[in-house]
Amino acid sequence: MSEKKKVQRRDFIFTASYALGAVGVGAVVWPLIDQMNPDRSVKALASTEVDVSSLEPGNSITVLWRGKPVFIKRRTQGEIDEARNVNLKDLPHPEKDEDRAKDPEWLVMLGICTHLGCVPLGDKGEYNGWFCPCHGSHYDTSGRIRKGPAPTNLEIPKYEFVNSNTIKIG
Amino acid sequence: MSDHNYVPSSKIGKWFNDRLPLLTLADHLKEYPTPKNLNYWWTFGGILTFCLITQIITGIVLGMHYVAHADYAFDSVEHIMRDVNYGWLIRYVHANGASMFFLAVYIHIFRSLYYGSYKSPREVIWIIGMIIYLLMMMTAFMGYVLPWGQMSFWGATVITNLFSAVPFFGEGITNWLWGGYSVDNPTLTRFFSLHYLLPFLILGLVILHIWALHVPGNNNPIGIDLKKPSKDTVPFHPYIVIKDLFALLLFLIVFAFFVFYSPNVLGHSDNYIEANPLVTPAHIVPEWYLLPFYAILRSVPDKLLGVIAMFASIFILVILPWLDTSKIRSAIFRPIYKQLYWILVLDVLILGYMGAMPAEGTYLLIARVATVYYFLHFLVILPFLGKREKTLQVPLSITEPVLGGSPNPQMVKKRERT
C-alpha cells in the first residue's frame, strides 16, 4: 500500500461487530464453564453438627463435612503445652496455637494435607501431631506444618459450640 | 506425495472418485514411498494405531456395562468382571491395553529421539505427537479413576490438587474441577464423559500426525533426505504393511501375556478396595507410565515449583526441535550424542523407579540428581552439543554404504561446497 489507510466508517462497523461477537461467544461459553462449579445440592450440605460428648482427652474423631474429613481432637494438657511453647520463628507458617484453638482443649481442623490433599495419620510424625503418608509432611499438636513439602498449616474450618456437647461445623 | 494422476480402473470407481477422491487417497497410502532401510523401531506407528483402536472398541463395550456413579461404579466394575459374558477379558484387554499403549508410545518417542525424527522439516509431526501424548496421559488418568477404588480416588485427589498450587485461583480451580469441595460423584461423572471424548480427539490428531508425516515422508535410520520415489524407497504396500503386521504379531504376544497370565501385575492391589474419603492408602503410586513425572514432582521441596517442574518436563519436549541445534539427524553419526542418549534413557528409567519408591532419604537424593540431569540434558547439553560436536561423515544415499554408488545429486553438491 502506498497510501496510508484512512480510518473509515466501515472499520468502525467491523470493530463493533467483532466486539459484539466476542461478548456473544462469552455469554454462550460461560454457562458451559460454570456448570462444572459446585452445584446447589452440594452447596446445601454446608454444615454438620457433631456430638462430641463421648470424647476423652487424648482421643480424636474424624467426621465428614462437605465430603472432606474433619479432625476433632480433645487434646491433653501435655499436647496443649507442647503446642503453645513453640517459638513462632521455628514455624514455616507461623500461627499462634491460641488463634487455632480458641478453647485450648478442642482442636477442630480439616484432615486434608495442604500439599496434595491426602488424609494425615493421627499421633504420628516427628512432632507428635499428624503425619501425611503420601509425601511425608509432619504436623505438630496444633496441626501446624513443621517439616515436609506442605506449604501451610492444616486449615481450620468455621465452627462453633452449639452447646457443651455439640460442635457445628460450617 | 506420490502420483496424484491416479485413475481408477472401473467405471463406477472413476465416477465415485471424480466426486470424492477416496480412491486417490487409498492409492497414495498404498504407493507412499518409504525409505527402504527402516528398521523395526519404525513399526511402532502401526502398533500404536492398533492400540488406539483396541482401546476405543473395548472402551465402548465397557461403557455399555459400567455405571458412572460414586455409589455404583465399583460394583459395576466387579459386575463386568464376574457377570458380563467375557467381561473379564474385555476389561483386562482395556486395562492392560493402556499400559501397552504407553509402552509403544515410549519406544516410538525414544526412536524419534535417537534418529532425530523431530528435526526440520518434521517439527509439526513431533508437536502433534506431543499433544497426543499429553491427551493420552489425561485419558489414562481419568480412566484409572473410573473403577472408584482407593487408588482411583486418591490418585484423582493428588493430581487434581496439583492445581491448588496456582496462586490466588488455586481453590477456585480445584472446586471447579471437582464440582464440589472434594473428589466426589460430580468428579466421577465428568471424568467418565471426558474419558469417552478424548480418545476421539486423539484419533483426529493421529490423522493429522500421519498427514503431516506424508508431506516430508519418513525419516530413516541414517537420517538423510531422500529423493522420493527413488532407488532408496519402496512402496508402503506390501513392503511396510507386511513388516508392520509381523511386528504387531510379536507385540501381541507380549500384550496377550499380560492379559492372560498377569493381568493385574501392572495395576495396584489397593484399587480392589472401594474408594474411602477417610482413609488414604500408605503409598499413593500412579500407574507406571507416569512415574518419571511423579518423581520430578516430588523431588522439588516447594509445592508450586514442584508442579511447575513437572509440567515443564513435558513442555520441554515440545520445544525440543529448537533446543537440539545439530543439523545431523541420526545419532549414528553423532558419537557424543549417542552416548548422552543412552544416559538420558537411563536417567528416565531411574526417575521412574524413584517415582515408585517413598520420597525420602537416598531415594529422594537420587531423584533430585536425576531431575536436574533431565533438565540439563535438554536445556544445556543439547543446544551446546549441536554446535560443538564433531560428527561423522554422513552417506549420500541409503545404497551408498552398501553399493558404494548411487549418489544423491543434491548431497554431492552440498558436499562439494563445504
Features:
heterodimer, A: 170 residues, alpha+beta, four-stranded antiparallel β-sheet, three-stranded antiparallel β-sheet, 10 strands, 25% helix, B: 418 residues, mainly alpha, Cytochrome Bc1 Complex, Chain C, 1% strand
Average the pLDDT over all residues of chain B and give the rounded result.
92
Radius of gyration of chain A: 25 Å
Sheet having the most strands of chain B? 2 strands, antiparallel
Q: Low-confidence spans of chain B: pLDDT under 50, at least 5 residues? A: none
Helix share, percent of chain A? 25-40%
Question: What's the number of extended β-strand segments of chain B?
Answer: 2
Order of helices and strands of chain A: HHEEEHHEEEEEEE
Structural class of chain A: alpha+beta
CATH superfamily of chain B: Cytochrome Bc1 Complex, Chain C
- Biggest sheet: strand arrangement of chain A: 5-6-7-8
**Biggest beta sheet summary of chain A:** 4 strands, antiparallel
Describe the structure.
The complex is a heterodimer of chains A (170) and B (418). Chain A is an alpha+beta fold. Chain A has helices spanning 9-34, 40-44, 77-84, 97-100, and strands at 48-51, 60-65, 68-74, 106-110, 121-122, 130-132, 137-139, 145-147, 159-163, 166-169. In chain A, the strands form 3 sheets. Chain A has a 4-stranded antiparallel sheet with strand order 5-6-7-8, with no helix packed on it. A 3-stranded antiparallel sheet of chain A has the order 1-10-9, with no helix packed on it. In chain A, strand 2 and strand 3 form a beta hairpin. Chain B has 418 residues and is mostly helical. Chain B has a single domain (35-417), classed as Up-down Bundle (Cytochrome Bc1 Complex, Chain C), CATH 1.20.810. Chain B has helices spanning 11-19, 22-31, 44-65, 73-82, 87-115, 123-145, 150-161, 170-178, 185-214, 236-261, 291-299, 303-318, 320-323, 335-356, 361-388, 400-403, 409-417; strands at residues 33-35, 233-235. In chain B, strands 1-2 form a two-stranded antiparallel sheet. In chain B, helix 3 runs antiparallel to helix 9 (185-214), helix 6 (123-145) crosses helix 7 and helix 11 crosses helix 12 (303-318). The longest helix of chain B is centred in the middle third of the chain and has 30 residues, at 185-214. Chain B starts with 10 loop residues before the first helix and ends with a helix. Classes of the chains: A alpha+beta (170), B mainly alpha (418). The A-B interface holds A 33, 36-39, 42, 62, 64, 66-69, 112, 115-119, 132-136, 149-151 and B 154, 157-158, 160-162, 164, 175-184, 186, 190, 277-284, 298, 301-304, 306, 358-360.
